[in-house]
Amino acid sequence: MGYMHVLSLFCMQIILLLVVVAETTAKVPAIIVFGDSSVDAGNNNAISTLLKSNFKPYGRDFEGGLPTGRFCNGRIPPDFISEAFGLKPAIPAYLDPLYSISDFATGVCFASAGTGYDNATSNVLNVIPLWKELEYYKDYQNKLRAYVGDRKANEIFSEALYLMSLGTNDFLENYYTIPTRRSQFTVRQYEDFLVGLARNFITELYHLGGRKISLSGVPPMGCLPLERTTNIMGHHDCLQEYNDVAMEFNGKLECLASQLKRELPGLRLLYTRTAYDTFDQIIRTPAAYGFQVTRRACCATGTFEMSYLCNEHSITCRDANKYVFWDSFHPTEKTNQIISQKLIPILLAEFQ
């Protein structure tokens, strides 16, 4: 047997061993992501919408300095969670042509920036509605079955950790901006409407095999730079009305999680308050986390800038780690990391 042939066999054995080790050290076989820009890894790059971030300075602190379509200077929470669970350090977007089913087998993102529970929210900026994210997931299921076989695929579907993070756009981009829903619902009724849509989505995901689901609430949305900029009468402080709605809506999501766990056998659904609570702590005591600026974002003047208004011609802060927000709507990588570090032990305790 020739030297090169022996070397080739040895290399193959090493690769197989690494695959086995990866499978045994990972806490779950895959991380599967649904939601909005808080968790979108770049699906909006592939659709016709103004809401994109696949250009500089987005991604300047991501590996290789690449703007991937994440609304951040670096990584977002699912990336940190994936790494903590023993999987890859960045979860790819399902619509990214650079990746295939072999990449998606251990983690995939279906999220779309600008979307919400309400279909009317996704229509505002022509992004992927939540029902379409689920259709992409069904397509993924078919591809994964063809790739690893039915038995292995079904095991991945039931053992994977599903992350859901959305709801902010339903209020800020839709309810409080466009009059249609306000003419149909009081804000309390709209919260209930959204919770009903969340119930339907989780139930359908359960019937498709999902069992381990982490449901995130919305952050203190009245403290986003965009909202503080427009709160002129309130001296650019956090808009308490919006934060109150966020807390009320989150409470209803928490109740929903308890109800669904009783109704659906074998469902492990965890509602997590981390997005609100940790964000709130950071904004109240920024210095304790090493931050210097909370009112403005890093990109440009940090008031209205987001997507195309935050671009390579913008004046961007030198050190994003001093800023809570990257653009007027989205946190910096450091903020994402702090929130993830609070969330990860809770997820590991519940789902590994």
TrEMBL record:
| Keywords (A to Z) from UniProt | Signal
Q: Which InterPro entries match?
A: GDSL (IPR001087), GDSL_lipolytic_enzyme (IPR050592), SGNH_hydro_sf (IPR036514), SGNH_plant_lipase-like (IPR035669)
Q: What GO terms are given for molecular function?
A: hydrolase activity, acting on ester bonds
Report the leader peptide range.
Answer: 1-26
Q: Does the keyword Signal apply?
A: yes
Q: Which Gene3D superfamilies match?
A: SGNH hydrolase
The family database entries (PANTHER family) matched by this protein are listed as: GDSL ESTERASE/LIPASE EXL3, OS09G0132900 PROTEIN
Give the family per the record: Belongs to the 'GDSL' lipolytic enzyme family.
Q: What is this protein called?
A: GDSL-motif lipase/hydrolase family protein
